[in-house]
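Workshop exercise sheet. Pairs work together: one partner reads the sequence aloud, the other fills in the structure field after running the prediction. Swap roles for the next sheet.
Pair: D.N. / O.F.
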Amino acid sequence: MTDPFGTEALRTSVLAAWRGSPTRFREDANAEEDLRLGGYRDRLLVELAQNAADASGAEPGVLRITLVDGELRAANTGAPLTAAGVAALASLRASSKESGVGQFGVGFAAVLAVSDAPRVISTSGGVEFSAARTRAEVPELASGRGGDVPVLRLVWPCVEDAPEGFTTEVRLPLKVDLSLDDLAAEVPDLLLALPGLRRIEIGTQSWERSVSDDGVVTVGSVRWLVERATGELPSELVQGVEHRPQWTISWAFPLDEELGEDVLHAPTPTDERLSLPARLIATLPVEPSRRRILPGAAAWSVLDEAAALYPALVARVPAIERTALVPLPGFPLSEVDDRLRTAVVKSLRVAEWLPLASGEWIAPARARVLDVGSEELVDLVEDALPGLLDAELSAPVHAKALAALEVPRVSTAEVVAALAGVDGDPGWWREVYAAFAPLAEVDPDVREALQSLPVPLADGRTVTGPRTTLIADEPLPGLRVVHPDAVHPLLVRLGAVEAGAAELLADPSLRENVARSVEDAEAGLEGEDLVETVLRLVDRAAVRAGEEPWLGALALPDASGEWHRADELLLPDSPLVGVVEADAFPLLSKEIAETYPRAALVAVGVVDTFSVVVDDEPSGADHDLPDEGAWWSSMPEEPARVVAVRDLDLVADWPAALRLLASDPVTWRAVTEPDGYTGWWIARHASLSGKAPREYRLPEATLLDGLFDAVPDLELPEHVLRAAGVRSRLEIWDDDDAEFVLDRLGDQDRAIADAVVLRAHAALPDSDFAPPARVRVLSGQVVPAEDVVVLDHPWLLGLVPASRVLLADGSEDLADLLDLALASEEFDGSPDHVGEVVQWHDLGAVRMACELLEVALPDGVVVVHEELLVDGQRVEWWMADGVPHAADTPEGLSRALAWVTERWEDRHTFAALITDPTAATLLG
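Structure field:
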């Protein structure tokens, strides 16, 4: 038998080594056992495919796997078996793959998992290995290990033919059950990882690997985008790397489905778990088991090259899909995964592969993306925000990837801030609003941020925030009216007011301008535009006088050209001209009065007639009315409503003013308001022939004669005089009026009838007015109040001088009101003589008088005196210790009787009946 590969020499060398050193035998047996049981135990197809790929040479080859008569056979095309390959097969420590071409290395040990007698048949010859033949060669050594020997150290030639169409076939008599279906599952990954193979057949199944012109690799029905690079390790890193300085890197990205969790391929699968979106296939230094990479500078160098190549793979993907290749944050699956992901992200950050809105490319480190965006918006704002990515990258699907690359997200608020410095024409701004509109419709945060949007105005200004702007049919000077070319519904959505005249008047900026208009005019600023704006709006809105009090601050010129508040000016033809004081109101410029409608001028506060204040919920005397505080405090309860005529203190001609007030229903209601301010003020402060109305009485009110003067003939109707406070009856309104009446009673120059004085004292209210200094007494005199007493017991009148008794129906309450002493406090006494005690029913005249008046005859007694003296002074009757005393006269008896029967008001009737106790006296 021929031995083309020199197997005899190889066997002789190995046997000599074993026999010379049993330790070497044990080492080889242990090493092979480690490979069989450890690193290569489940890598059969991987290693067979790797060997086939290594043999393929320049043209990708074919691998066929079949089961024939209990043998697993792996046939491949490409280079035939060589002596170097055989030597590699028979060595556990060497490999013939110095340049990635050839066959067989330590990975061939994977066949031992299924066979103890592998054969390699090639067109150049064949070799076989056999556990049985090895044991026969070294029985003693084999027995020392229980028959366990290294299979792949002793090689023998064999003569068999390679299958037609193939150059080499590995034949493995199986010692275990093996399913071709289990092997078939590994084929797609192997074809992708091994570019040296174009086809793998497993039994009746086959898989093809094809490469398109654009680098897309198709394995079966799965397409992969593959990016490759080759290079060479620096010389200082080559040691210990299987003597191969060349490296090859391939990134493979599945185009039809996500990769999911994967492993590093070096180039066949390892146990190094990876979590990247693309598969890495690289000729990395690996451990003898080929399950782990060999840590060290050489491996790290290749991984760095792989990371540097990754952006090139990403750049081949359609722009909007590229973020799918960005490794997302998460726990690394291995040390290699951690190192590789970190390097890939770093490489991606500095490479230019993200699409700008302009169509150019930018590195993530210099890019930014709108938090919420649209294509139109990005196109509009890209100049204001350099580095802005294409609008499609604002979608949530890209958010995690861009965050992993540390691409900052530009919020709507930041976009708005960037736009603040943009000088765009109104039409451009409208396009900006249109771009924001769909976003604002669905996102309240966007709407909030857009509150700071710049808005161009019709007057050329640009202001911040739609909420302060107005949308009107025509621009008006001084108002924040949006430029017509910039108007968009978004502005209304954000608070801009679609303004008619009323809404324009409500604009805060207009109110601010009106409020400072006088100050601006005095500073020399032009005010005509503001005047025109306000008066036109007031006219169009049909504002009525008093509806908008703030309008009164509008600066208007007077007849001399000086500027004043509108509510300080009088219309030139106002009915108040001549009624109010000449210097009370400057006259409005005649030009202004003739240019604008009278109603508009009155609505802004220009005085035409008396104006009325109406407050349905007053909180205090704060309506800027003269003497309002005094009126407010005079009310027994705080007013629930204020309806008052203004400027009454400026009237010069009161009869004319009263006629004017009476002619207008609005002002007349204010004058006649019950307990109202206007009537109160006019009664006290108006001037009719030099006196206040309350000092007068109506001519027919003669019962008030002396206390009040008759009102002179002023050609005013009676109802007007009454409303103005001219008195028709004796009525005291409040403390102030009480003091006024008491002052009149204490005026010694006034001749006042006793009846009027009595009624006046009786009408005094029970309140807190100031007591009088002088009072009117029974004698008709007016004397100092300190000398006067209030008659609290009528019998004391016989002792107290008339000049000291107040002309009033006395009571303790009245004394307190007027701060006067009671007569009983200063005068007292008892009868000087003992009279005759008489039962009331024994007095015939008294009995008959009571019967006639239907008054019950009192029980008890009365002491009758021939002449009743008290402290030497003659009196008609007296009360002493509750017992009545009376002079034996009708006057004395009648008063004592009226007192004890509590019919004091009938004392004079009793006197007449006691004098003549007949029905004729009663009836006549």
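Discussion prompt: The CA atoms of residues 748 and 782 lie 5 Å apart. What would you look at next?
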